[in-house]
Amino acid sequence: MKKITLLFSAALMAFAANAQISITEDFDAGLPGTWQTVIDTGICDYQNGTALPTGDAFTTNGMFFDDDACGNGADASDVSLWTEFYDLTGATSIIISFDVAFQESTDGESYAVDVWDGFGWNSVALYEDDLDPDIQNVSFDVSAFVNEFFTVRWRYVDAAGSWGWHGGVDNFDLTYTLGVDDNQIEGFTMYPNPANDVLNVRAQNEIQNVSIFNVLGQKVLEMAPNALSQEINIASLKSGIYIVNVISNEQKGSYRLIKQ
């Protein structure tokens, strides 16, 4: 079950700090509808449950690939579990953590953890030997890979059809920080704040672009005023905290907005 948490600090309430967002998935209800499995080769897919084919079991439902269930001599397995796509535009740090399980039967099986940087996959971890203990909680700083299609995948490969055991994941957590540093653009004002239906922006120089992001990093509104001031209709936005990115005279600024 996915849970999204927004963490505040005292500085945040003063509109001069960072918003930290945590998205968790415990798989208790099975494969999330926004996630997917990809079978490049083989006849088997990821399963949901606690009982792994060997070694310790998950304490609650997790997602795992059971190569043992495919049978000895089956077609080669190359199967991946993908998260949904996260728009992390504007994030200043990204941390992923999860419980990982991996046991091999013969040499050659592997369990890789990769992240998508917008152009290709980047290796975060590669398990090629039995884990001891069988299930471990791991954490990785993947801030270098911020992009609007951020994705994590867990890829099980069984060495061209050799009989293997399993690779699995549980209790996934994605925590990232949206950095905001007010008053980056000299002479820029944004009012009222909090706002209801209308937000006004004004600057000493022409405003080329205004983009508004929600706390998940998703762009919800964008316009190009090409003027010194602009009235923005935000009536359709849900109540909450937003990040307003502004470009004026080649300067960039980020500002926090509360929509009532």
Mean pLDDT: 88
User: Main β-sheet: number of strands, strand sense, barrel status?
Assistant: 7 strands, antiparallel
Task: Find the count of extended strands (DSSP E, 2+ residues).
Answer: 18
Radius of gyration: 23 Å
Report helical residue fraction.
Answer: under 10%
Question: Which spans of ≥5 residues are poorly predicted at pLDDT below 50?
Answer: 8-17
SS-based class: mainly beta
Strand content: over 45%
SSE succession: EHEEEEEEEEEEEEEEEEE
Protein architecture, described:
- With 260 residues, this protein is mainly beta.
- The chain has one helix at 10-13, and strands at 2-7, 19-25, 36-41, 46-49, 62-66, 78-82, 91-103, 110-116, 121-127, 135-141, 151-157, 166-178, 189-191, 198-213, 219-223, 227-233, 240-248, 251-259.
- It is elongated, with a radius of gyration of 23 Å.
- Residues 8-17 have low confidence and may be disordered.
Key descriptive features of the protein:
mainly beta; Jelly Rolls; Immunoglobulin-like; 1 helix
Topology:
Layout: E1 2-7, H1 10-13, E2 19-25, E3 36-41, E4 46-49, E5 62-66, E6 78-82, E7 91-103, E8 110-116, E9 121-127, E10 135-141, E11 151-157, E12 166-178, E13 189-191, E14 198-213, E15 219-223, E16 227-233, E17 240-248, E18 251-259
Antiparallel strand pairs: 1-2, 2-12, 3-6, 4-5, 5-12, 6-11, 7-10, 7-12, 8-9, 8-11, 13-14, 14-15, 14-16, 14-17, 17-18
